[in-house]
Specification:
heterodimer, A: alpha/beta, Rossmann fold, 7-stranded parallel sheet, 7 helices, about 15% strand, B: alpha/beta, QueA-like, Thrombin, subunit H, 2 domains, 9-stranded mixed sheet, 6-stranded antiparallel sheet, globular
Chain lengths: ~240, ~350
């Protein structure tokens, strides 16, 4: 898909991979709408993009709260036009330090579910229908190897990531003839605040950098028609188009 | 006729009264029958406007409560709006108190940090003082955040409870241009839309800023619908052209789609031109359609302006008989009610 002039909505856009993706997409001429809970970091991320000459907007909202979903969808479409690319990047680990499932409160699992699965589902319901009507669009769900591997202690996060992988595949199956593409992309272990929260003693030198991973995801967007709809991909392993 | 009382839990439960204009007959169906009622060469055109939370409660300079209903985005932070006096949706709009007059310069307080200044009066032939042009104190993303934070969907007095924003969106809504829901599309699920596509029936879209259905002032209501903006993409033009060349029909989902297409055509000497525009076209009996062959719409009371639009599709006798039939057979009217399909 052409990135120039595309309208892009990125959740979790104020830091880490979301921020790197927003900057990279804006540099290629996309109009980007960033969603994050914290207004201060969000405004900084938006200002960075604008200072580089990009077009960016920030919406301070909690993806895990259903009351924010239609305001996010409506504001994004009003500001940047009908959304062409939806990047479902926001997620929560659940309680940290990470803990065993038997030590996880039901409310904490519910919160992870709301942010990592129900929120993206609701946002897809609000936005993907418009893509299907137009016959074009991409939804990317940022996933993790924790969706496949059963790592002890990662329960709340893992189960929701496994679920969003499947959600993405089912959307692809149901809307296969509409021109909308759905992908789950595992960016790999990255040097982000979320990773530091999960694994405080990790050596940053062994971790990927969001600014290095973002261009690989842009390559997947550019070459979207060449990948099977519904595919789950590791960003570091996919051959991407420049 | 029975009035709907709120959004359906099951959109596909909507009934469909099918009117054959030329034969002056009608038959019962349900919305899921739509793919059987259309032909592969036909094209169905929907209005993809999302519905704004266009109702904002505010205080006047004298601290009187007001309801401001956004009508028309003029660009930037400026909007045309209609103002109602105190009260809420439980009182029918026409029985609501008149607002105090708000001369230019009046400041309307929506919240501590979100206000609107009246910068002009009237338009649309208003002599009531209810129509204003306002300028929000916030701009760009902050204005939209303010509207979404403090606004609510325009409500209707026949409802049992408040409408939430998600209740007034179609399954394909995109840019928030409509101040009231383009309701004929509400029962269309993606199961129905994909079935239409799988049978080769065309599906196209345009965006039309559906306006208010009531202002609370009788003389203003007589002028409805007001000027509304629209945008017709090239893809809709292509789909209409394809239907024409293959003997198909152009079926509009809702009166807003009729207004956009016929309004555009009327402005351009009977030709459709892709792009953005505005229309003040009022469609009624004797109107000669140049684009639209059929309409999927709600069931409209013979006293409503929408009923007059339907007279451009079928004669008054069959429309009145079908209304009578629908009333006797428990069809449901209003925004979340049943539908009728008028085809030649």
């Amino acid at each position: 898909m052409e990135i120039r002039n595309a309208s892009v909505l990125i959740t979790g856009g104020s830091r880490g991979l979301g921020r790197a993706l927003a900057k990279a997409l804006a540099r290629e001429g996309a109009r980007v709408v960033l969603v994050a809970r914290g207004a201060e970091e969000l405004n900084t991320a938006v200002d960075e993009i604008r200072n580089e000459g990009g077009e960016a907007y920030g919406i301070a909202a909690d993806i895990g709260d259903k009351n924010f979903i239609y305001p996010i969808a409506g504001e994004a479409a009003a500001l940047a036009g009908p959304v062409d690319i939806l990047i479902q990047n926001a997620s929560t680990l659940g309680p940290v330090p990470l803990r065993l499932l038997l030590d996880t409160d039901c409310e904490d699992l519910q919160r992870a579910w709301d942010v990592n699965l129900a929120g993206p589902f609701r946002l897809a319901r609000a936005i993907v229908g418009s893509m299907a009507l137009r016959g074009r669009g991409i939804m990317i769900s940022i996933t993790s190897d924790a969706a496949i591997e059963a790592y002890a202690g990662w329960g709340a996060y893992s189960v929701t990531k496994a679920a969003i992988d499947h959600l993405t595949r089912i959307f692809a199956a149901e809307l296969r003839d509409t021109g909308v593409r759905f992908f789950s992309i595992d960016p790999g272990d990255m040097d982000t605040q979320m990773h530091a929260d999960a694994v405080p003693n990790a050596d940053p030198a062994t971790l990927g950098k969001p600014d290095d991973i973002a261009p690989r995801i842009l390559g997947i967007i550019r070459g979207a028609e060449h990948f099977p709809n519904g595919a789950r991909m590791a960003a570091t392993e996919v051959e991407v188009l420049k | 006729m029975i009035s709907s009382t709120g959004p359906r839990t099951e959109r596909e439960a909507a009934r469909l009264l099918v009117l054959h204009g030329k034969e002056a007959t009608f038959q019962d169906a349900v919305i899921t029958d739509l793919p059987d009622l259309l032909q592969p060469a036909d094209v169905l055109i929907v209005n993809d406007a999302a519905t704004l939370p266009a109702s904002l409660f505010a205080k006047s300079p004298s601290d009187a409560p007001l309801e401001v209903r956004l009508l028309h985005h003029l660009g930037g932070s400026d909007w045309k709006a209609v103002v109602l006096g105190s009260g809420d949706w439980r009182t029918p709009t026409e029985l609501r108190e008149a607002p105090e007059r708000l001369p230019p310069g009046s400041m309307l307080r929506i919240s501590k940090d979100f206000t609107a200044e009246v910068i002009g009066f009237g338009g649309f032939g208003d002599g009531s003082g209810r129509l204003i042009t306002l300028r929000f104190s916030r701009h760009g993303v902050d204005m939209w955040t303010g509207i979404y934070a403090y606004g609510r969907p325009i409500q209707y007095s026949y409802l049992k409870s408040d409408l939430a924003l998600w209740s007034v969106q179609t399954a394909y809504a995109s840019r928030p241009w409509a101040v009231e829901m383009p309701s004929a599309g509400h029962p269309l699920t993606w199961r129905i839309l994909l079935e239409l596509k799988s049978r080769g029936i065309g599906l196209a879209w345009l965006t039309h800023a559906a306006g208010v259905s009531a202002t609370g002032d009788e003389s203003l209501d007589a002028r409805l619908p007001f000027t509304e903006r629209f945008e017709i993409p090239q893809s809709a033009m292509d789909a209409i052209q394809k239907a024409r060349l293959t003997g198909g029909r152009v079926i509009a989902v809702g009166t807003t789609v009729v207004r956009a297409l016929e309004g555009c055509s009327a402005k351009n000497g009977g030709r459709l031109i892709a792009g953005a525009g505005e229309t003040d076209l009022i469609i009624g009996p004797g109107f000669r359609r140049t684009v639209v062959d059929g309409i999927l719409t709600g069931l409209h009371d013979p006293e409503q302006s929408h009923f007059q639009l339907l007279r451009a599709f079928a004669d008054e006798g069959i429309l009145r008989r079908s209304w009578q039939y629908a009333t006797e057979n428990n069809y449901v009217c209003h925004e979340f009610g049943d539908l009728c399909l008028i085809i030649e």
